[in-house]
DNA sequence: ATGACACATAAAATGTGA
């Protein structure tokens, strides 16, 4: 059975409903993980996606900020959220599909302006979130389980994951301390960074281009903040994983683009 | 600084994004 599973930081489900419907129609994923839906759970506009076949919807929303979801053509055997980071904000939802595959939609805190936890509580929260997530996977899960960890991780770990490493190495999102936290979490369950299996680390690869600078897309001033990770048991069944850049050029785009991972179960 | 937009909110000015 071939499965397509996507992750996409949609930056507000309401202004992006049309874009998401277009994406679902054109790319036909079986499951899509969303971040930054920016709406309460009970106000999530699920009907347009149900009409496209995404009848199964796990929503962890909140007012105004953050919020994650998983929309699926396949039924869920289970769904749950973890309170990583110790705040009450909605940054995680996971589902188990009937075929023993577990899929997580994760929105790691952005981390504010200064990459120092002693002066910036938002950055401290980001590091605590990484630690909690790492500990949970290490304690509650094992490498022989098929797990996909998808989401906006808000860290670009490699030098070629940002458009100018030297310039950005002291910036939140690319600073060494958060890269260390990402790497520690990655090691905890021997995760594979899937898109980098297909685009070698000597080539630039991005999933986010900011709105503020008008020429960011044109000049390719991007960051790879979005990730799709597989456990060893799942990795051997992955057949492709790629960034879907064209959505960034659509009308009224999200600043993030989707990552599409294909699995043969 | 690349460097000032997008989205949300008890609704105008402010928080958050990264």
Throw out a few tags for this protein.
six-stranded mixed beta sheet, alpha+beta, 26% helix, DNA-binding, 8 helices, globular, Deoxyribonuclease I, Chain A, 265 residues
Outline the secondary-structure elements.
Layout: E1 2-9, H1 13-27, E2 31-35, H2 47-50, E3 56-60, E4 68-72, E5 76-80, E6 92-97, E7 101-107, H3 121-140, E8 146-152, H4 165-168, H5 176-188, E9 192-193, H6 195-198, H7 216-219, E10 226-230, H8 232-235, E11 238-243, E12 259-264
Parallel strand pairs: 1-2, 7-8
Antiparallel strand pairs: 1-12, 2-4, 3-4, 5-6, 6-7, 8-10, 9-10, 11-12
Helix pairs in contact: 3-5
The chain binds one DNA strand of 18 nucleotides through loops.
Name of the CATH architecture: 4-Layer Sandwich
Tell me the strand percentage band.
Answer: 25-35%
Low-confidence stretches: none
Question: Which sequence of SSEs, written as H and E, runs from N to C?
Answer: EHEHEEEEEHEHHEHHEHEE
| CATH homologous superfamily heading | Endonuclease/exonuclease/phosphatase
Query: What class, by secondary structure content?
Result: alpha+beta
Number of domains: 1
Let me know the largest β-sheet. 6 strands, mixed
* CATH fold category name: Deoxyribonuclease I, Chain A
Q: How many individual β-strands?
A: 12
**CA-to-CA gap between the ends?**
5 Å
Shape: globular
Q: Round the mean pLDDT to the nearest integer and report it.
A: 97
């Amino acid at each position: 059975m071939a499965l397509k599973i996507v992750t996409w930081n949609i930056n507000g489900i309401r202004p992006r409903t049309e874009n998401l419907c277009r994406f679902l129609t054109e790319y036909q994923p079986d499951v899509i993980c969303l971040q930054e839906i920016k709406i309460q759970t009970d106000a999530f506009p699920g009907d347009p996606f149900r009409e496209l076949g995404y009848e199964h919807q796990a929503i962890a929303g909140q007012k105004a900020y953050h919020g994650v979801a998983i929309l699926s053509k396949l039924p869920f055997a289970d769904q749950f959220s973890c309170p990583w980071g110790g705040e009450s904000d909605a940054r995680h939802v996971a589902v188990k599909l009937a075929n023993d595959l577990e899929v997580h939609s994760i929105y790691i805190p952005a981390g504010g302006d200064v990459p120092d936890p002693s002066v910036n509580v938002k950055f401290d929260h980001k590091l605590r979130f990484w630690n909690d997530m790492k500990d949970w996977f290490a304690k509650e899960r094992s490498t022989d389980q098929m797990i996909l960890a998808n989401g906006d991780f808000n860290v670009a770990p490699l030098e070629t994951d940002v458009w100018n490493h030297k310039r950005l190495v002291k910036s939140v999102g690319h600073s060494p301390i958060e890269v260390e936290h990402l790497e520690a979490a990655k090691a905890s369950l021997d995760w594979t960074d899937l898109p980098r299996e297909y685009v070698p680390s000597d080539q630039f690869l991005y999933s986010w281009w900011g709105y503020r600078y008008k020429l960011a897309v044109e000049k390719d001033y991007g960051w790879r903040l979005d990730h799709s990770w597989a456990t060893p048991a799942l990795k051997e069944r992955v057949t492709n994983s790629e960034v879907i850049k064209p959505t960034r050029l659509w009308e009224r785009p999200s600043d993030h683009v989707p990552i599409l991972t294909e699995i043969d179960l």
